[in-house]
Amino acid sequence: MASLSVPPVLTSPRHDAIALHRAFKGFGCDSTTVINILAHRDATQRALIMQEYRAIYHQDLYHRLSTELSGNHKKAMLLWVLDPVGRDAAILNQSLNGDITDLRAATEVICSRTPSQLQIMKQTYRARFGCYLEQDITERTYGDHHKLLLAYLGIPRYEGPEVDPAAAARDARELYRAGEKRLGTDERAFIRVFTERSWAHLAAVAGAYHHLYARSLEKAVKSETSGTFEFGLLTILRCAESPARYFAKALHKAMKGLGTSDTTLIRVVVTRAEVDMQYIKAEYHKKYKRSLADAIHSETSGNYRTFLLSLVGRDR
């Protein structure tokens, strides 16, 4: 369930484009107007506004926003105005080919998306950046992490809710034999089960594992693997069990302690606002006894804060 709030009666995309252009004119930018418009339009409406802006002013709205805004507000807004699939592709490209390689960000985007989303994402990546996503992953990753990402991108998985309990129990036993029962770890078995099974099936495997061995599959993954390979497996498993809980934890980790990981905060808020942010907010409050809006308010400031809170929404 999305947190994005859209007015019941919308102005036309042309009117919005004109209002945005007026906000850019003169000394400085009227950021309040920019936020009030773009933070309350869905992906389809934002695309129409960008089309109208180009048609009227012969200029790309993305480029104009880039010149008018600054800092984290600029980073968040430029990510937001992209279409959802193009946004994921842009995050992946920046994570793999930017000044600083961020394999955890790339892994999160890949391992938290559905097979159908991944197929469209790969096509978009190829169209926008002129190379295959798999090629960039091959050049930036190695070992079991590399094998996991390529398998997760390449194998079509069932997306429905049906599960065979007997098959789930068999997979649980296979993972136990591949990990905790033996000396060393058979990483191939973990890669096979985690990349070939549906989320519903993998959640059932976790339940069967706990029932059979009185130990969580998550703890088994932590004890048997490490590094970015472990992070990838845990992302797949946690999203199979509850994407909202996974992203609530990611947001908490981004904001706890000294300083804030604004890159993570922006990525999660912007990519989930139109998907399941209401569920994420509920999970956040349940686990950390504080509203997500309050946490963001205390960790951010200025137009950056206003924009993120416009996407997340205040708790009712």
Short structural summary:
The chain is mostly helical and about 325 residues long.
Structure description:
The protein has helices spanning 13-24, 31-38, 43-57, 61-68, 71-80, 84-97, 103-111, 115-129, 133-140, 143-154, 165-178, 187-196, 199-213, 217-224, 227-241, 243-255, 262-272, 277-288, 292-299, 302-312. The chain is elongated, with a radius of gyration of 21 Å. It is 72% helix and 0% strand. The mean pLDDT is 96. The longest helix has 15 residues, at 43-57. It is an all-alpha fold. α16 packs across α18. Among the domains are: 13-81, Annexin (Annexin V, domain 1); 165-241, Annexin (Annexin V, domain 1), CATH 1.10.220; 244-312, Annexin V, domain 1. The two termini are 15 Å apart.
What does the secondary structure layout of this molecule look like, with pairings?
Blueprint: H1 13-24, H2 31-38, H3 43-57, H4 61-68, H5 71-80, H6 84-97, H7 103-111, H8 115-129, H9 133-140, H10 143-154, H11 165-178, H12 187-196, H13 199-213, H14 217-224, H15 227-241, H16 243-255, H17 262-272, H18 277-288, H19 292-299, H20 302-312
Helix pairs in contact: 1-2, 1-3, 2-20, 5-17, 5-20, 6-7, 6-8, 6-9, 7-15, 9-10, 10-12, 10-15, 11-12, 11-13, 13-15, 14-15, 15-16, 16-17, 16-18, 16-19, 19-20
Highlighted features:
single chain; 316 residues; mainly alpha; Annexin V, domain 1; 20 helices; 0% strand
